[in-house]
Amino acid sequence: MEDTDYGTVAWDVERARATAQAVERRGDQLHTVVAVDTSNSSIAGFTELVIPGNGTGDG
Asked: Is pTM, for the whole model, over 0.85?
């Protein structure tokens, strides 16, 4: 699998908002943290945590 190409997934504001809305419609909580490189306004790091809205399971 050394030469496997996983491709690049592009995220933009619209895709991020649509994802957040889908999580909200399920009744779950979404917590997002983004690190922005201020030299060029690019995203340097991104993480999300989804907490089940029913209080069961793991985040």
From this structure: no
